[in-house]
Design a protein that fits this description.
The protein is of the alpha/beta class. The chain has 14 helices and 19 strands.
Length: 447
């Protein structure tokens, strides 16, 4: 394709204003996540087999790798830490820790044991929950802690939650006395265990009341805990609710490539097709991100070399796209077997700075295989990601004015954030980009 055709109005989305990112005026104001969370989660690699030993090993590896020093500090335990709520609940109708995976130490719950260990490494600990109340609690009519109310009084037994607990959870009617107090008892329990981050999974548009209840419960607990709301499936119709009550939200399908797993392992962790989907998601959800609440595009699958399912160019693309979107960077890989080149990618502080500016980039060029995302920094620099999602090497270009740069008779200086090299650019910012690859520039006017 001729270069001039790239700049036709049909292909170029010229955004001269607004590239500074949305100031998230409605954002959750609990003081947390002023910048996107950095950390690790168990789901991609450990899936349904987490144990105290494996979680603690990952925490040690996070610290030993040097990632802790540059800001990666959350170690998040995902699903399967609890006994089935269809067969086991505590006296107040809440889940029970699976002691075969997370053994207690004396009177200390097994989850608290792990949390204490992770805190001893200078890290923070996260955990997984889903909305609703166990049907078993309704059948047993368990009391709601600190109230005269019971489970049967707050539940809607005929309305099962569409989440991942095998139909064992039913909806809560938050108009009933005791409903908020039930969720408060959950938050108080997690706070007592030392939880710093709660992943509320299996959320649909119909779960707005659950989002509000968990936010309120966290506040009343007195412990700062990030609230991460993740999908069963929800649309941006509830974005205002998410912005007001949550710190981050994942609305996309899982990045894991469940159909690709070999021999019962988690490898390959993902696929290029699952990464490529995020280009449109970044565009659709860009208006809703800002300090206090961020779009979560799911796990970063960089760290285990070819076992991730991505080529080196695709791994750079994933990190660059998430950074441009100011997404939480939550690693899904096995940190105990980090690939040295991948670790260098993760330790690239120039890329990390793009993520941590808390500004969500806009797509300024959507020309088939050629995609450009850009944002303006407070100091006037433009961060420009030139992506090639096609199958062969191509030149990708964008006018400097389209990324918010003022005219400069001397042209522009562009630092390639992956190589560190400086390049002189004219009225257009351009590069030859490999298949499924990226060139990520920090651009400013040349002197």
């Amino acid at each position: 394709m001729k270069l001039t055709s790239i700049f036709t109005t049909a292909l170029v989305i010229v955004l001269l204003v607004g590239l500074d990112g949305l100031q998230n005026a409605m954002a959750e104001d609990n003081g947390l996540e002023r910048t996107p969370v950095l950390g690790w989660s168990s789901w991609s690699f450990l899936r349904s087999d987490p144990t105290a030993a494996t979680i603690e090993a990952q925490a040690r590896a996070l610290k030993k790798s040097g990632l802790r020093k540059i800001g990666y500090k959350y170690v998040n335990l995902d699903d399967h830490w609890y006994e089935s709520p269809g067969s086991s609940i505590d006296p107040y109708g809440r889940w029970v820790t699976d002691s075969s995976r997370f053994p207690a130490q004396g009177e200390t719950n097994g989850i608290e044991v792990v949390a204490d260990y992770i805190h001893s490494l200078g890290l923070k600990f996260g955990i997984y929950v889903t909305p609703g109340i166990p049907m078993l609690a309704v059948n047993k009519n368990t009391p709601i802690k600190g109230t005269p109310c019971t489970a049967a009084q707050i539940a809607e037994p005929s309305s099962k939650e569409a989440n991942y607990n095998g139909g064992d959870m039913v909806e809560i009617n938050y108009h009933k006395p005791g409903a908020q107090e039930y969720i408060n008892s959950w938050a108080d329990m997690l706070a007592a265990w030392g939880v710093d981050y709660i992943k509320l999974d299996g959320i649909w548009n119909g779960n707005v009341a659950d989002i509000k209840a968990w936010s309120n419960a966290i506040r009343q607990s007195g412990r700062p805990m990030v609230l991460d709301v993740t999908q069963g499936n929800f649309s941006d119709a509830i974005a205002p609710i998410l912005m007001q009550y949550a710190n981050q939200w994942e609305f996309v399908t899982d990045i894991e490539c469940y159909d690709c797993d070999k021999g019962g392992s988690s490898y390959p962790l993902t696929s290029w097709a699952n990464v490529e989907k995020r280009f449109n998601y970044l565009t659709e959800w860009q208006p809703y991100a800002g300090p206090g609440g961020f779009n979560d595009y799911d796990s970063i699958e960089v760290g285990n070399g070819n076992n991730t399912g991505l080529t080196p160019a695709e791994r750079q693309t994933q990190l660059s796209l998430w950074a441009l979107g100011a997404s939480p960077l939550i690693l899904g890989v096995d940190l105990t077997h980090l690939d040295p080149p991948d670790l260098k990618y993760l330790k690239n502080t120039a890329i990390l700075a793009v993520d941590q500016d808390s500004i969500a980039a806009k797509r300024v060029l959507d020309a088939g295989d050629r995609q450009v995302f850009a944002k303006k920094e407070p100091n006037g620099d433009a961060i420009v990601g030139l992506f090639n999602i096609g199958g062969k090497k191509e030149k990708v270009s964008i006018q400097a004015s389209a990324v918010g740069l003022p005219e400069n008779e001397h042209g522009y200086s562009a630092r390639n954030l992956w190589t560190g090299k400086m390049q002189k650019q004219g009225d257009t910012i351009s590069a030859m980009v490999p298949s499924h690859g990226v060139v990520l520039y920090r651009v400013r006017g040349a002197l």
